[in-house]
Amino acid sequence: MTTLLLDYTQAILLWALLPGLVLFAFTWFVARRLDNWSIVDVVWSYGFALIAGLLVFVAPGPSGWTAFALHAIFVAAWSLRLGTHLGWRILGHLDREDGRYLKMRATWGGRMAAKMAVFYAQQAVALTILALPLLASWTDSCGIRTIHWVGAGIVVLGMLTEATADLQLARFKQDPARRGQVCAQGLWGWTRHPNYFGEWLIWVGFALLSWTPLLQGIPGLLCAGGMYYLLNHVTGIPLTEQQLLTSKGAAYAEYQTRVPAFWPRPPRA
């Protein structure tokens, strides 16, 4: 067990934290040159695929069709989908910066570059923490078991939920007649945040995919629990709802009375 923990710690430092710090340092220089700090969101999303690739193709470790290989495939697929989705939205409009970073500019003023250097380093740490389940399944890899296939199925369900919600919202926004209205169609009639619910399902799936004989999937369960807390109480729903109440006003307040925030249920007549 001691040897496993030492190998796990070495993998965290060598194949997640160090590459993450290098990646976000480079991103900081690019963002400063572009004068658009939003690109960090795209890089952060692609970072998981980078770590999965490092573990598969560079780091000496398990080979063959193992639980880790299955886990890495689904992490990479999720990472590439999310990064590409954000990339279309952010990189296609580099003349506009996300509202979060505009607020940071207003708060930090001339200290923005220095503050963002710290913020970008924090993203490397966050990336490392959320990669702990993948690193666990790499360190203590085993053959594919039923629990891993169940996890893979939950990841697929979560990704389909996210993709469907994104498509439904995009179609709603494309209709000029619905400008200023609140989308309550499809999945958005079941939960006010189907994309966040789908994201949490993905992390539950990752937790099951990360199960190993010794670590018992504990890093994955901790990440899934942490993601649930963040989405529901910190950076997800609270901030999004605050922005929507400001932009949509009474229409969104009425929507809140009819549709649950996170856990889906059939629409009320």
Rg from C-alpha positions? 20 Å
Number of domains: 2
Helical content class: over 70%
Taking the alpha carbons of the first and last residues, their distance comes to: 56 Å
Give the overall silhouette: globular
Q: What structural category arises from helix and sheet content? A: mainly alpha
- Figure out the total of helices: 11
Which stretches are low in confidence, meaning pLDDT under 50 for 5 or more residues running?
Answer: none
- Mean pLDDT, nearest integer? 94
Q: How are helices and strands ordered from N to C? A: HHHHHHHHHHH
Outline of this structure?
With 269 residues, this protein is mainly alpha-helical.
